[in-house]
């Protein structure tokens, strides 16, 4: 193969930039986290994802607003959030207890569902701790879009947190297993509030 | 013989005045063609574009040998480069062609001057992304898409196009089942060339040779091709080769989309909903 062809092919192969596999704050020409978040919206919209599962150990009131901004761009979506309602370690500021957070989040989620912004919005509180964060399209018959997020929704794409697109099918199946495990061993928000009030 | 100019385009990084990309097109000009006799400049976000029709080949060759385009007297700038490698190749009109072709419908010979791309320097694709706005503007104005062709960073190419354009149409009428093909030879440069035509369907292949002229040829091969290859040889070398597939049917299914606005704090989210009923167009 000629030197020119070798050069062309190797540069083309290495030019595999993916906005969903990146540390946006380190990207040349990076503007702000709002713009960076739009890449998540664009990816899920392009694939017309209808069933989206968000896995995040933390879920605060303001995170529901983030979910709204990320995924309310298409109608008839079913949103599932799997969380442990972890508290933020935020200096001296005291986080609300989990039941208070659960109640506030439930009120917002109920309001969104009533307004028909999402077809359904289900929050499952797990009975076990977990760490990793994901956005996952679980539509049947689609090669589910799966993005691992280094940061929680509350600090999404700040502090040099990155995104990694996962295409490994075995890992996707494992994550589906995790979701089932969370559902079997977790509680819907309303049940959780009743149990712990 | 019509006049020939060397239509030259340079992308240069401001400040370092390093030549990022350049090409020169060996262009025969007709009476209707324009000519840019002085260096012109366009600038966007840290990258400048300079362009001019260089009149003498020797000036172009000297610039390449010295590794410097001197933009005097219009600009007190020297665009510098160090391209130690060079290669010649021919670029076909084909969707399989991997090399960048600055022409929409011409085949071209190319001589590329380039430097070795080494791991130590900023990767061309990362460099391009850091100047995305600039290269977007360059793509729109000069039809050179470095974002799609990052390997063109650090290169200067001389393109010498074959000034032949081909017209092709598949036909299925009473008298003709096959295709019509014709050629434009703008400057009457290729008299005596030979044309080799190859047509393919799922089950059939047809090959024939014709004399190169500017007549419209009807080829009654008995089927409308799915794929076709045209090759033109002149003076013992291939000067034109096109390869394309024919589009026979388009089917479009669509549905109706509505937009709703959701106010969330200080933000407005636009929600798209599409009807479940779809219909064919």
Q: Would you write up a description of this structure?
A:
The complex is a heterodimer of chains A (197) and B (281). By secondary structure, chain A is α/β, with parallel strands linked by helices. Chain A has one domain: Endonuclease, Chain A, CATH 3.30.870. A 7-stranded mixed β-sheet of chain A has the order 6-5-4-1-2-3-7. In chain A, β4 and β5 form a beta hairpin. By secondary structure, chain B is mostly beta strands. Chain B folds into 2 domains: 158 residues, no CATH class; 82 residues, Sandwich (Immunoglobulin-like). Helix content of chain B is 10%, strand content 50%. Chain B is built from 3 helices and 19 strands. In chain B, the strands form 5 sheets. In chain B, strands 3-4-1-2-10-9-7 form a 7-stranded mixed β-sheet. In chain B, strands 8-17-16-13-14 form a 5-stranded mixed β-sheet, with no helix packed on it. Chain B is flat and about 65 Å long. The mean pLDDT of chain B is 92.
Shape type of chain B: flat
In the sheet with the most strands of chain B, the strands line up as 3-4-1-2-10-9-7
Order of helices and strands of chain A: HHEHEHEEEEHEH
> Taking all residues together, what is the mean pLDDT of chain A?
90
Bulk shape of chain A: elongated
Overall number of strands of chain A: 7
Quick structural gist:
With 197 residues, chain A is of the alpha/beta class.
Features:
heterodimer; A: 197 residues; alpha/beta; Endonuclease, Chain A; seven-stranded mixed β-sheet; 7 strands; B: 281 residues; mainly beta; Immunoglobulin-like; 2 domains
Topology at a glance:
The complex is a heterodimer of chains A (197) and B (281).
Chain A: H1 3-14, H2 33-46, E1 51-55, H3 61-71, E2 78-83, H4 98-114, E3 120-126, E4 133-137, E5 146-149, E6 163-165, H5 169-184, E7 186-188, H6 189-196
Parallel strand pairs in A: 1-2, 2-3
Antiparallel strand pairs in A: 1-4, 3-7, 4-5, 5-6
Chain B: E1 4-13, E2 19-28, E3 40-44, E4 47-54, H1 57-66, E5 68-70, E6 78-80, E7 85-91, E8 93-94, E9 108-114, H2 124-130, H3 132-142, E10 155-161, E11 164-172, E12 177-185, E13 194-200, E14 205-211, E15 217-219, E16 227-234, E17 237-245, E18 253-264, E19 267-280
Parallel strand pairs in B: 2-10, 8-17
Antiparallel strand pairs in B: 1-2, 1-4, 3-4, 5-6, 7-9, 9-10, 11-12, 12-15, 13-14, 13-16, 16-17, 18-19
């Amino acid at each position: 193969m000629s030197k020119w062809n070798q050069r062309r092919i190797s540069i083309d192969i290495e030019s595999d930039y993916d906005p969903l596999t990146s540390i946006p704050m380190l990207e040349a020409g990076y503007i702000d986290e709002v713009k960076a978040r739009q890449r998540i919206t664009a990816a899920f919209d392009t694939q017309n994802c209808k069933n989206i599962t968000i896995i995040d150990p933390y879920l605060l009131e303001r995170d529901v607003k983030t979910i709204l901004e990320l995924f309310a761009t298409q109608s008839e979506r079913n949103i599932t959030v799997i969380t442990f309602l972890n508290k933020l370690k935020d200096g001296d500021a005291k986080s609300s207890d989990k039941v208070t957070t659960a109640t506030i989040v439930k009120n917002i989620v109920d309001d969104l569902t009533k307004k028909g912004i999402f077809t359904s919005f289900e929050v499952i509180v797990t009975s076990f701790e977990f760490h990793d964060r994901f956005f996952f399209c679980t539509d049947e018959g689609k090669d589910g879009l799966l993005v691992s997020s280094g940061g929680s929704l509350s600090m999404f794409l700040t502090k040099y947190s990155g995104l990694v697109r996962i295409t490994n099918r075995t890992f996707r199946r494992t994550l589906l297993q995790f979701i089932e495990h969370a559902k079997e061993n977790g509680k819907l928000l309303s049940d959780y509030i009743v149990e712990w009030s | 013989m019509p006049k020939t100019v060397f239509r030259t385009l340079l992308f240069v990084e401001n400040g370092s005045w390093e030549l990022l990309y350049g090409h020169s097109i060996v262009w025969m000009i007709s009476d209707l063609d324009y000519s840019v006799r002085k260096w012109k400049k366009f600038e966007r976000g840290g990258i400048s574009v300079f362009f001019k029709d260089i009149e003498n080949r020797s000036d172009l060759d000297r610039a390449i040998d010295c590794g410097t385009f001197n933009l005097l007297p219009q600009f007190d700038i020297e665009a510098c480069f160090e391209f130690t490698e060079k290669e010649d190749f021919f670029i076909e009109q084909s969707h399989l062609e991997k090399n960048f072709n600055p022409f929409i419908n011409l085949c071209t010979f190319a001589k590329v001057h380039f430097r070795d791309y080494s791991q130590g320097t900023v990767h061309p694709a990362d460099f391009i992304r850091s100047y995305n706005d600039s290269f977007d503007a360059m793509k729109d104005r000069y039809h050179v898409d470095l974002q799609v062709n990052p390997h063109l960073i650090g290169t200067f190419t001389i393109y010498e196009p074959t000034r032949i354009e081909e017209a092709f149409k598949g036909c299925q009428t009473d008298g003709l089942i096959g295709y019509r093909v014709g050629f434009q030879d703008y400057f009457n440069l290729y008299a005596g060339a030979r044309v080799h035509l190859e047509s393919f369907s799922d089950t059939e292949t047809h090959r024939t040779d014709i004399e190169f002229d500017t007549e419209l040829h009807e080829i009654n091969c008995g089927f409308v091709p799915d794929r076709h290859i045209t090759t033109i040889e002149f003076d013992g070398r291939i000067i034109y080769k096109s390869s394309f597939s024919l589009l026979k049917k388009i089917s479009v299914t669509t549905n109706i989309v509505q937009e709703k606005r959701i106010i969330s704090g200080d933000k407005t989210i636009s929600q798209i909903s599409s009807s479940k009923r779809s219909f064919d167009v």
